[in-house]
Amino acid sequence: MNKADPLSTQELNFLSETFRLLGDPSRLRILLHCEEGPKSVTDISETLELSQSLVSHHLRLLRGARLVTRVRHSKQMFYEISDQHVGDVLLDMLSHVREEREGVAERDASVQHS
Amino acid sequence: MNKADPLSTQELNFLSETFRLLGDPSRLRILLHCEEGPKSVTDISETLELSQSLVSHHLRLLRGARLVTRVRHSKQMFYEISDQHVGDVLLDMLSHVREEREGVAERDASVQHS
DNA sequence: GAAACACTTGAACATGTATTCAAGTGTTTA
DNA sequence: TAAACACTTGAATACATGTTCAAGTGTTTC
């Protein structure tokens, strides 16, 4: 981040890999859904209208980056967000996106059309 | 995020697009470098040892998502991070990555080798 | 105004990745 | 133990994307 606390190559790779995983609409929806509490694969699949296979593939990636954890409950697997930093990041970035989009709307509104 | 404040499809797309842009090591390095203050393209290119063309391509994408802004100063363009949310996000996620990686190290250290 | 500097852009290519489909694993129920 | 349920995995594919190279724009200097 700054000279006193530089990123190692490995940290850089983990960091970018983590962001990359958030950079897909399906995975993002899965994470946002899981933020409400532990969800089963079937629940995610039905709620978001994504195939079970696809959800499972995505959850595997998210689990690999420790963005979610899972616990088995009889036949079902319940997935949840692994720590609050992730939730914080999602909220912070949403603030950014909403502010920027407001900014765009304001600028558009002030344009003089010829 | 929650039922009271749902994401529109457009917001979801902006959000994931923004994360996607952070999900590349080169772009992430560029952003982290620009966090220190406004930087010229040549400065970024030389400091990070990336071709000027590549840096320019990446900056174009970052600018498109309003992650950076630029200002011309005679012949040079100076780029800087557009708002503090972005810096917050980077720091939050870095915390996550570092905690998770510590966790891995601890778990690895406690493994009984046979 | 031509040359030099700083940056941008478009095309091309190689690599990566989201999704689907079909088959496979683990757990419970009859 | 066979069938049903819940989930996972591998292969295949269509599409996206990071990088390079060559050519182009805008600004200053001579």
Strand content of chain A: 5-15%
| Main sheet attributes: strand count, strand direction, barrel closure of chain A | 3 strands, antiparallel
- Supply the CATH architecture of the domain at 9-82 in chain A: Orthogonal Bundle
Order of helices and strands of chain A: HHEHHEEH
- Rg of chain A, Å, rounded: 18 Å
Mean pLDDT reading of chain A? 86
CATH topology assignment of the domain at 9-82 in chain A: Arc Repressor Mutant, subunit A
Quaternary organisation: homodimer
Give the strand tally of chain A. Answer: 3
> Which sequence of strands runs across the widest sheet of chain A?
1-3-2
Helical stretch count of chain A?
5
- How does the helix and strand content of chain A classify structurally? alpha+beta
CATH superfamily label of the domain at 9-82 in chain A:
Winged helix-like DNA-binding domain superfamily/Winged helix DNA-binding domain
CATH class of the domain at 9-82 in chain A: Mainly Alpha
Describe this structure in words.
2 copies of one chain form a homodimer. In chain A, 62% of the residues lie in helices and 12% in strands. Chain A is an alpha+beta fold. In chain A, α3 crosses α4 (52-64). Chain A is globular. The N and C termini of chain A lie far apart (45 Å). At the A-B interface, α1, α2 and α5 of A face α1, α2 and α5 of B. The structure holds a DNA duplex (30 and 30 nucleotides).
